[in-house]
Amino acid sequence: MLFNKKSISFKFAMILIATTVMASMSMMAAIFIFSQTMKQQIVRNGQQQIESAVTQQIVRDIHLLATKLSEDLRQPLFDFDMASIKKIIDKLSDSNEIDYVYVFDAQQNIVHDGSALLLLFAQPISQMPKVELSPTNELVVKKIGKIIHVIEPIQVKGVLYGGIAFGLKFSQVEQDISHFKKNVAQENDDFSNRMLQSLFVVLFFLIVLCLPLSLLLTRRLLKPMQDLANKSLAITHQRKDIVFNSEHDDEVGQLASALNSMTHRLRVSHQHMTAIAYQDELTKLANRRKFNEHLSDITLWAANHRGKYALLFIDLDRFKQINDSEGQKAGDILLQQIALRLKNTVEAYCSSNNIDTQHLLLARLGGDEFVVVLPHCRNEHEASDLAMQLINVCSQPIELNNKWLVVSVSIGVTLYPIHSQDADELLKNADLAMYASKKQGRGRVSVFNYLMKEEFKLHYVVCSELHEALANDQLYVLYQPFYCTEKNRFIGAEALVRWRHPDYGLIMPDKFIEMLQGSNLINELTLWVVEQVCNDSKKMAELNIPCLLTVNISSQSLMDNEVTHQIYRMLNDHRHPCQTIGLEITETGMMNDIMQCTKAMNLWRSAGAQIWIDDFGTGYSSLSYLNDLPIDVLKIDRSFVVDLSPQNLTPVVKSIFALAKALDLLVVTEGIETELQARCCKTLGADMLQGFLYSKAVTFDEFIGQMSLTDNIKINE
Ligand code: C2E
Ligand code: MG
Ligand code: MG
Predict the structure, then answer these.
(1) Measured distance CA(375)–CA(302) in Å, rounded
(2) Nearest to 708 by CA among 478, 494, 481
């Protein structure tokens, strides 16, 4: 943490160091500049003082020299003793610093210039301007250029006799002074360098000392802040057990307690949000989002640990009907009750089988769909075992609106990794398996197999291509004749639709019609077949062949007011006195909505059509309704004639025939394959017989051929 470059303490320490270093550097620079200025000032003053001291010394020396010369020359000048004067001048001229030496008279004309030939004798002094000399005059010193001109009057007993003038070269002195200055400057530079070096050494030690010190200091100062930061960071990493230390009686303490209350609020709101996001509000089970995440997690876990799990897709049977009849509120209560039963059963199953519940999940996907993720499930038997327990517990009566209801659930099972290793595909597989359970009669469990997938593909093809298939003549109608027991001949036929698919070949109606249920396509098909039958009936009329043609009406179309009216219009349009059209309705379809059914039946009957009840005996029609409804014919289901023989006339079969006769209805038996069956049905009073014994479904042209024969019946033996 100490050297974490991103930590606040590191940054703070760096700032502290930088500040200290900068402050020290600024201070040292100031000291340096100040000392330099001071030194320069001192040097300058020193130089000036030296210069003036030197000058003063020189002046004193000049004065001394001039006074001495004036005294020495006093007598020789008075005596005009040129030899003595020369001697004195020579003594002076020996010095390198002397530029010239003249002894002059009171008129300031040269008496002696020091030369042997007295070249300048009686000439005025040219080197310097004339000076007013008097007996009282003191020494005259003038500096002109690099020469100091000195004039000392010579007097004897107060009378001015002349004087001595000499010029001193000042350059040597200046050289000395400049040399001295240079030395001082050199000294000064050396001093500056030494000072700079010292300053750098001090700075270095300052930094070396400052770094650990400031780090320690900042760590100490910022430790509580760092703790808060680390804990805050831990919160962002989903740690939920973080508590900030708010013991400090300062800003840090206040911040910590603020963070504590913030994290508390955050936790509460997180719990709330999680509940909203991942919980099904109605049942309090996990919702679809939670399930999706869980499924991805367990799939990943299973992939990494060679794990296994099962997916159980549970769907309530006929929930929509219950919801519609009992009301949505009751529907909600039902879902809650079912959810609770599922939960208890799943938990009990896991605890009795010692299943680790870490990856167990029961979720409601929406509507009446639930799903169980069962971890460590080794095979389909284990999954089916739980599924059966769930089916049993759900089928226990539930009290709703003061009524006891029995509901059932259909379950589909799929296994990881046998059926797929992909989470989405597994869910689809489980859904398909559940759908298979529904198809097989509900309230049961189906384990996924690959045929279900093929079925699903076909389902997709059927639904997406039917419309196009109708337009492209891929659908056609065959007719299976009815044999009239009284007339001993065919009197009509049932229209049975077929689909010749370019890829799938011939698709039989019991395969594709069911797939169209729930969509508007089934109505489209119904109307198309009715129209075909009406057209064919018209053709029969044109051929002068009286005929009864029946058409199967799906229960969905029967319930659709618009469709029933369209059928009515078609029946009316093709109405013909010699032709009859019968509409075959299943018992189950009829019982869905008895009011709507009655309306449709009356409407069609008013257009001259007959109402047939198809597959009679397999549904749950109430006898009282049979009495009230406008029905013409009962078509007894094939299942009743399969085992029919004179020795085996069951009371049920007998009563169905008796009932039909009592209600004054015509009876048709379908699925007659043997003579024996035909004979039995005739004995029981069947008016029409239909089955492979007489004819399979044939094309319209073939059917016309069959009907055109006078003795049209030719039994297939
Ligand atoms: P369904 O109306 O009960 O038709 C009778 C079915 O039994 C027909 O099957 C027919 O071929 C078959 N069958 C007839 N005699 C015998 C026999 O002696 N033995 C055996 N084993 N079967 C026999 P198909 O044509 O496959 O039709 C099946 C079902 O499809 C029909 O049952 C009907 O419910 C439905 N269906 C057929 N065409 C249409 C249609 O145009 N519209 C609607 N909504 N449903 C149709
Ligand atoms: Mg039928
Ligand atoms: Mg039938």
Answers:
(1) 9
(2) 481
If you average pLDDT over residues 681-700, what whole number do you get? Answer: 96
Q: Which residues surround ligand 2, an ion (CB under 5 A)?
A: 552, 584, 614
| Choice from 510, 673, 700 to test ligand 1 binding pocket (greatest atom count within 8 A of CB) | 510
Share of the chain above pLDDT 90, in %: 51
Atom of ligand 1 nearest to the CA of 637: 3
Average pLDDT over residues 261-288: 84
537-552 residue pLDDT tens:
999 999 999 999 999 9
Domain boundaries, the chain: 2-51+178-276, 71-172, 288-448, 459-710
At 650, the amino acid letter reads T
The CATH label, of 3.40.605.10, 3.30.470.20, 3.30.70.270, 3.90.1150.10, for the domain at 288-448 is 3.30.70.270
Q: Give the confidence band of 339 by pLDDT, cuts at 50, 70, 90.
A: very high
Helix (H) or strand (E) holding 78: helix 8-79
Of all protein residues, the one whose alpha carbon is nearest to atom 3 of ligand 1 is: 615
- C-alpha closest to that of 531 among 561, 489, 490, 574: 574
Give me the CATH topology for the region 71-172. Beta-Lactamase (3.30.450)
C-alpha to C-alpha distance for 711 and 78, rounded to whole angstroms: 200
Q: In the beta sheet, which residues pair with residue 613?
A: 585, 634
For 459-710, CATH number?
3.20.20.450
**Poorest-confidence range of 131-135, 374-378, 507-511, 624-628?**
131-135
pLDDT score, position 717:
41
Ligand nearest to the CA of 637: 3
